Amino acid sequence: MTAAPPENLRIAIVFFGITRSLRYTLDSITHNVIAPARALSADVGLFGHFYDQSRIYNPRSGEAGPLDRNEYRLLPLDKVERESPGECLADYPIEDLMRNGDYWKDKFRSFGNLVHQLHSLHRATLLAEAYRPDILIFARPDLYYMNSFSPWLQDLARDPAPQVLVPHWALWRGLNDRLALARGADTIAAYGHRVKMMLEYCADGRMLHSEQLLKYALRDHKTRMIPLHASRVRSNGLVVIEDFRPGLGAGGGRETLPFDAFIAAQAAQPPVEA
Fold it and tell me: Which domains can be identified in the chain, with CATH numbers?
């Protein structure tokens, strides 16, 4: 017989990086991430770390233009940290990490973006850990979440074993690093603080790589891959058409749809099965 979720379950949700497109993604975050957590527990905390920047320029994603510096306020956060981009680079052995090469071959621009993302994740995780959660949801604010987190939150609520759930698509010979649900303090720390493992990961000559670093960080932790789907939304409202087939997938797909067309296409699709 399956056990019922404990009454004193505590859930934290962390958001990190650049809000970028929160005005487009907020509805999906509210209905598919926050609401399922609150339906399961009366003790849900929301935490965030964001970069305070007014413009974006990313040739790899094709993004360029202004950002709303106050967009993060759309989220009902309990605690939030903000910092200027670039400051965090002094905290890490950047020159040592760069010696192994530039995986993306874009003059270390994507490399720098990854370090910023990992640092932001680290800071947001620290805020959440002070809340002492049983379950922690890691959620990028620039993703449109297509299916509810509810089934997997219920799984983790009923099973106290330390574990982490990640999407089963866009693996890139590692693990999809865009979102996750984790249970257990050590597992939460391994996922959220993997910025501390960068130098160790690169010690044998490997170039820093996001998905492969995550696989390395979780190598000693139970990991399950699940059909949880979410698409990246650019700052201009263009939605990246992801490849959700299990495995490598297109990962870095370039095809996009305007947000309204994307929503219309989603309405015509059958729901994702848990």
Answer: 10-267 (3.90.550)
